[in-house]
Every structure is written in structure tokens, then in C-alpha cells.
Write a structure and sequence with these properties.
The chain is an alpha+beta fold. It contains twelve helices and twelve strands.
Length: about 425
Amino acid sequence: MSDAIKTAPHPFAKQSPLFRHAYCKGLILSILANKALPKAARMQQCATALEKIRDALGIHLQESDGSYLQTVSTTDIQQIINTLRNELTSDVSIAAFLYEIAYYQQASFRNDAEFQQVWQSFADDLNFRKDAVAALWNACQLLANCQFPSLDIPLLSWLCGTCGINWGDVTAIFFGESDLKENITVILPDGVPLELAWIPAGVFQMGSPSNEAERDDDEPLHKVKISQGFWMGIYPVTQKQYTAVMGSNPSNYDGFDSHPVENVTWFNAKDFCKKAMEVAQNIPSGMKFDLPTEAQWEYACRAGTATPFHFGDKLNGEQANCDGTRPYGTAQEGANIGCTCNVGSYAPNAWGLYDMHGNVWEWCNDWYGPYQEGFVTDPEGAANGTQRSERGGSWRNAAKRCRAAIRRKGEPGIIFDNLGFRVILTAGK
């Protein structure tokens, strides 16, 4: 590493507004890198990382206006990163450093091909795409609630683009809760657990764009705001969970405790929610079980993505339980197991939810009907009707019928061996 790098004044080395700026921006990256940590631990991790950068680079405690970072070359940046990788264990340190470089340089430098390559390489190492939207969302809310400098929105937008995050999906950060709540486990009778993941409030594009292949006419793209966060079942309700609450198992594929319950009517699903409130333990105060609205379901399914599936634009039975002999987005045929399977058999989405595509259709609370037009807050479906909404597709369906935007309708008293449900915990009305 050059002497200039080792001796240059550096904003990380001072307890001042500049240091607070570095801390503020670094906090965003620390949450991106490890959002599972509690808030206090994340903040301490970031502060420690910034101090380690100073020590690793041999930076002296001097006042600085950031002039060094305005002129640092891409070659020096790569040298610094290599040194940090060798001497530190925290990826947060590198993230915070790169963010500061992007902040102090002229905006045009952010588009420098070599610098873009450095950032992209690092973003790939951290797998930012996995849950970056939710994490960045909550990180920005944390900062908004602290006495730190204002957020640099153009810089955040640039960061999202470089890391492969859709900035439009992150605008909802300013509608979210002050922090990411923990996942919880509710205990049903006989000690049967029901795990739920926290879904933060936000804004998303519901439906499918006009150029999405094989879309249906009832999926017009429109903006929706989910004004309150909620907990959602990590899995569809299983046969074991249903039996623990209801005392019986109506499933066609019965005897498989970890398979989703099916052959349940919409009324059965609502009864489960009501009875679970009476018999379950650990329910947070003021919350109640219910079925998700279509908007809540699709919002949770997408988890910040805008592709046909939360894992991308292709499905052939390898990524979810569907009829993989009728694939989507690829000509390669895949598996078709021909029945339900254990919940959690495939990878979760960014918010930790499994089986949002395939396995079983899931009842929603709404009457089925046309979407409301325009920017809508907390839509609850049609005011009345004869059929309830179902989402997600199933083991029996072609891959196109398992897209995030797909809708199905059914009379509330009907049953199928590919139709189940998933619960949410939401503020009681």
C-alpha cells in the first residue's frame, strides 16, 4: 500500500460530524451485511468496524475535510480493500469504506467503470440481492430517527443500482417501522410451534407488467401501500398445526405432519384463525390471527422483487413444487412430484417465507374482484361477491400458474387437495 494511503487524513479517524457521517452511512451497510443482529449490536459493530479501518490503514487522528477521498484512485481503493480483507473479518468495514469513497468523490466518479467493477465484485461477495431491499428499508428508517446528517438519496439510489437493487422498490422505506421486528414462534396445543416472520410496512407494485409473459387480464400493475407491518406464517399451515388446533385432519394426503393441510374451505381457514386465538400461547398483545389480504400476500411473496417469482423469471419444478414438465421462462423441463411435499423443501424468499410459489394454493381474506385503480392503501378486495381469492399456485399447476401475480378464485365452501392457507398476525380491529 502506498505511503499516501497510510498517512492520509481520513474522516473515519475523528469523532466529529464527518465521523458521524461515516457512522451513519456505515450503519446502512452493516445492516445490509448482517441484518439478523439486534439494533444495538449492529450499531456497535459498525462503530468498531470504522475504528478498525483507521487502525488497519495506519490513519492518524487528524481533522480532515475529506480531501484525500476526493482524489483517491481506483488502484488505491483496490489496495485498501485487499488490506482490509487480509486484516479484518468484517465485511462491514469494506462496505463503509466504499460508501465513503462514493460520497466524497464527484458524482461522475460513481460511474467510472473500474470503480463500478470494484463495487459490483464486493456486492456479489455479500449477496446483497438476497434481502437488501428489506434491510436497506429498515436501515434508512433507523437513520431517520437519529440525530445524524440527512440521507444522501442520490447516493443511496446509486448504491442500489450498483448492487442490483431496484430503487423503486426501496422508496417505501419512509413508510416503514422504526426497526425490523424479530420473528416469533407461537405455541399451539401439544407444544406444536407456528413460526412467523415479520413483514415490514412499505409500498410495492402489485400485479404484473404488460410485458410479463403469459400474464392474465386480472393482474393490472398498480401501486399499493401496506401501511402496517405484520407477522406472516413462515410456512403454509401444516397438517400437524391444523390438527393441534382443530382436532382433525381433512387432508387428502393425510399422515404427513409437515405437508401443508389441504381440502380446507375458506370457512375452515377462518375458523382455524379464530380458534388459534383461543388456544395458542405467545401471541403478541393487540394482535390477532387472520388470513392475509391479496395485497398483503403478494407484497410478502415478492419481498422487494418485481420478477414473476421471488427467485427470478424462470420456474421448472426445481425451485418450487409445481408441474415442472410445463416450465416458465425456460425450455428445460423439471420435476413434477404429483402431490404436496414437506413445507420448506425449497429456498425461502428474502423475508424468510417458504412455499410462496407452488405446493398449495392459499386462501386470502378478500372477495375476488377487479383491483382498485391508482395508488391504493391497504386494499381489502371487493366489497362483496360470491368467490374468495386464492394465491400462489400449487403442485398440480403449470409454472405460469405459480407466478407472484397470479390470481385464482373459488367459492368459500369448496375444497381441493391442492388448496390450503397461511396465517398472519395483524393488529386487531
